[in-house]
Design goal:
4 strands, Translation Initiation Factor IF3, globular, alpha+beta, 2 helices
Length: 77
């Protein structure tokens, strides 16, 4: 996937629900077409972040897992 990442936040080591909350705090800062990369290792984030992103009208481009690390690419339409 050749996606231009505009912003990246690394929330590895942060306890739930902080990764989801921090992601929601950053989303309003995105401009149309910008992509946010979120890295975390909170197991509940695999469900909460995609749900929160969709409900707020953003597009989930990618969900990857490498061991305990989750990677999300989120785009503002």
């Amino acid at each position: 996937m050749d996606t231009q990442i505009t912003y990246s936040i690394n929330l590895q080591g942060e306890a739930c629900p902080y990764p989801a909350i921090a992601t929601l705090d950053v989303l309003p800062e995105l401009k149309s077409g910008e992509v946010l990369e979120v890295l975390c290792d909170c197991p509940q984030s695999i469900n909460s972040i995609p749900h929160d992103v969709k409900v707020r009208g953003f597009e989930m481009l990618l969900i990857e897992q490498d061991g305990p690390t989750l990677r999300f690419l989120i785009k503002k339409p």
